[in-house]
Amino acid sequence: MHVSIINRINETHTERDAWRAHESHTHARAHGASHVVYPANTHFINPRQNPPSNPLIFLIFFANTMSGYLGALSELSGKATVGEYGVTIVKLQDSPAQCTLACFLTQLEPDLFETYHVPYQNVLWCEERAAGEIELAYAVDLGENVSLHTEVLSVGAYAHETHPDVAQQVLALAYKQSQPAPRVLVVLNNHGGQGNARKLYHTDILPVLRAAHVEYTYIETGYSRHATEIARELELDEYDIVACCSGDGVPHEIINGFFQRPDRARAFDQIALTQLPCGSGNALSLSSHGTSNAGRATLRMLKLARSRMDAMAVHQNGTTTLLFLSQAFGAIADADIGTEHLRWMGAVRFDLGVAHRLLAKTTYPCDLYVQYAMKDKSEIQGHYDKHRVTLSDTRPVQEEDLEPRFEDTSLPGWEQLPLYITDDLNIFYVGKMPYVLGDAQFFPAALPDDGCMDLVVTTAKTSFFKMAKLLFSVDRGGHVHSPDVLHAKIKAYKLVPRVRLDHHYLLVDGESFPVQPLQVEVLSKVLTVLLDDGFFVDTCFTQLEDGSVCVRESV
Questions:
Q1: Which entry of 204, 240, 248, 538 is annotated as an active-site residue?
Q2: Which residues contact residue 455 at a Cβ distance below 8 angstroms, ignoring those fewer than 6 apart?
Q3: The pTM is what?
Q4: At residue 281, what are phi and psi to the nearest 5 degrees?
Q5: Which Pfam families does this chain map to (predicted)?
Q6: Quick check: helix, strand or coil at residue 187?
Q7: Selection from 459, 426, 448 nearest residue 284 by Cα
Q8: What SS3 class is residue 256?
């Protein structure tokens, strides 16, 4: 039996999923560590094999055997192995002191030890407690949320013979793309969405920040445009990240606060903007973190790389506003803003609003002028594939990057969309990120810094049933491949609505704008955000290594 037990301990030190039992007459060895040392009086003897016949002698014999055995088990519990992909932890499932006589008078093949692997992407913090001992804080992804754990673990001779500072090595591997313990300004809006931001912060976000030893400052907005004031007056040298605990409104305000600064180029270059989803619209988190869960997004925030992203500048009535998300005119804008009185219905109000306008064959006539980058669907796929393997430049943001370039639509390069499209237009939607709402890939070809916006246009000439089919395919991004959809990459556009102003809306980064002419253009690579290797999350345009196309699960 003692050989079987030792081998069960030995197998737990094999990293990843190679933890199958094997019978081998070897000494217990920790992966990458020295031999496990047992007390001199330890006896791994099966009491069921030739026990002493005298009851008193048997009890003495058994007590000595169990004492040595429990001591050996205790020594083997709470061990850690630092490997290429993460930290492997071995622990007793129950305290040895809780074992009864039955534990040792029955076959000990049931799992006495719990072995689990913590990928570096889930490690939040590691520090040395004593010689050969570390304290490890990590998260376990539960799908809908994360749970946090802290363990004090022995790394034995490993920490002294091959890696003198094992805690620093673990941190370096855990934060390959980022820096540990960043300085984060948390800007929270508790008035958006369902009003749960403050609760989500304390239950899901703050515990992760503390476990990761983040240096954080908390500010709660008190009124409209408060976040703009915060960003405009921010001491840039005190922070690395501004984390918006909100929907999409606070990121919009932060960007425009930076834009109003005299040192705006430095602000955009120095401070990374991210979103910890706490509102009804969480596009930045969905597209960069791949989740609308606040706890998971906080973990992802700490692991992602500082990356460049394009902004969009909208010019209307002599005023310039910076955008990061989208602009809509037609059924989508009306269904969003026009159903505010039905907010109590939740997300279904938007679906009902769109369906009503499509059934009614509502049209939104306009004049539309565009600076195309590309409009052939196969060309867009090729552009996407090429960009996914081309790293972005990281030069500092310059003041000239924030200046408009396409103000005059009479210059060469502008095209007016045919009137047979714009007279019957029912959806006009432009975006910079793939995910706008929930699991909907409305702009699956969107890229962070390709200098383009993605344009989607449909008309009321398409039958209701075809439109319904298109909208049902948005969750997988299939709508952009339809011949009934105009899908293009554009550098700039000018929209001139020809509708009654009191019945329709312009939706700009989730906010209502006057239904008046506006012009939008890309400001290339002026935002600093947090992305995985510089890319948005996968969409239906993502080609996998085996040549297949990614189909993203719902989040």
A1: 248
A2: 370, 429, 430, 486, 487, 488, 489, 490, 493
A3: 0.82
A4: -110, 125
A5: DAGK_cat, YegS_C
A6: strand
A7: 448
A8: helix
Statement: residue 11 has pLDDT above 50: no
- 317-527+534-555 has which CATH code? 2.60.200.40
Domain 179-303 sits in CATH at 3.40.50.10330
For tokens 């899901």, what's the residue? 204
How far apart (Å, rounded) are the C-alpha atoms in residues 529 and 118?
27
Contacts of 323 by beta carbon, 8 Å cutoff, 6+ apart: 252, 255, 311, 312, 313, 314, 432, 508, 509, 520
Residue 373 tokens read as: 């980058």
Non-local (6+) Cβ contacts of 171 within 8 A are 123, 125, 126, 180
378-388 per-position pLDDT tens digit: 999 999 999 88
Token pair of 169 as six digits: 């090595």
**Residue 369: Cβ-neighbour burial (10 angstroms; 0-12, 13-18, 19+):** middle
Residue 545 has pLDDT above 80, yes or no: no
What value does the mean pLDDT of the chain take? 82
Report in angstroms the alpha-carbon separations of 242 from 185, 204, 277, 521: 5, 17, 13, 25
> Helix, strand, or coil here: 480?
helix
Residue 390: exposed, middle, or buried by beta-carbon count in 10 A (0-12, 13-18, 19+)?
Answer: exposed
Is 248 labeled as catalytic in the residue annotation?
A: yes
Q: Whats the size of the chain, residue-wise? A: 555
Whether the CB-CB separation of 284 and 248 falls below 8 Å is answered with: yes
Contact 11, 19 (CB under 8 A): yes
What would the two tokens of residue 210 be?
A: 């503390």
